[in-house]
Amino acid sequence: MKRDRLFFENTIVNTMEIEQKLKQLAKKHKIPEELLKEAIALEKDRVMYANRQCVPKLIKAIAQHAE
After folding, report:
1. pTM greater than 0.70
2. What are the angstrom distances between the C-alpha of 3 and each of 9, 10, 11, 12, 16?
């Protein structure tokens, strides 16, 4: 229970730090903050899609080497 609470608190702190860094980057490069967030979301989706494609290939490779 205590470990879960610490994880939750750390997650909140990390999220706040990320939000502050996003604001700093947006201000530094004169980019609207929302545009920066959208770009990050698109990149995250692209990475997740690539990971979904790689998983079956990894499973197949592991199965071949396990034989």
Report:
1. no
2. 10, 10, 12, 14, 20
